[in-house]
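hey all, quick one before standup. I had two proteins in the batch that finished overnight and I want to keep them in one place so we stop losing track of which output belongs to which input. First protein below, input sequence then structure tokens straight from the run.
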Amino acid sequence: MKRIFVFLAAVSCMMALSATNYMCHIKVNVNGSASEQDQVLVEVNENNGAYDLSMKNFCLEAEGMSLPVGTITATGVKGVDEFGYTTVKINAPIAIAAGDDPNYEGQWIGPMLGEVPVDLTARFIDTALSANIDIALGDMIIEVSVFGVAPAPETLKGDVNEDGNVNISDVNSVIGIILGN
């Protein structure tokens, strides 16, 4: 009898926990200087209405150079389900961990920053995600816009409307997906 209860508890825990990976396009604006890049992995894990969001191996790309920042993770954020999508918001300091990309081993600057103030709003469904992240580092304002689709990366690579480009029309398509249009 004890084994049955343990089995049922394990099944309940597995059902309560789900994860979705989104392969995203990202636009970063640092004090008015913008850059864009593709193929940023954002992982969303849900556990009983609380969400963990993680952007792995985040790098600032500018003028052909890459500045490895790290992995930005927000944990235990409550989600609100309405209008067919889930919204999560956080406005709190977050510690940025080192990334796990071996190309930047020992170069991640995020862990040296300590906790940084992050204002994050993300909206998602099973197949699409959009998020805005504002990070204030002293006089530097970093605005990050992320949009992407799941599953990643095997079938979809950010070109949501399949016009051959990853651009603002893909953002509009993602918004349409989120709103159910």
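OK second protein, same deal, sequence then tokens:
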Amino acid sequence: MDKLELEKIRFTLEIQFREQLVHRPEFPFFQSIGLKDIFQTFRNIDGTHLGTIHLKWSSGRTWKLSRWIDTQEEAEDFIRNIYHNKLFSTEKLIIVHHQEEVKRQEKIRAEHEMEELLRDGKMLWN
């Protein structure tokens, strides 16, 4: 496959990938949860690596094609670099979110218990 054929295939893959991406229910929220880079690797039926697309969120409220990465190894290195150079820790963010969700669920449970005690007349008022 020559370079022109590969560019045509990549263009078609990009269009199809973007079309599928915008129909995902979580798509409008990617950038608000800190997702600024999207990667997708494409292969032929025979397993030939066609490339990895990198879409980057721009401040213009759109996802722009950053580049096509030619090899799997280069893509993995690039993704690893982006992950390690983030301004925040995904792991810490998940932990904090989990802790806050546990607190929220405990508060909801306590409110439900209080409502049941009041409804059943089992709560004593002094």
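Flagging for whoever picks this up: The chain has a mean pLDDT of 89. Residues 52 and 76 are 10 Å apart (CA to CA).
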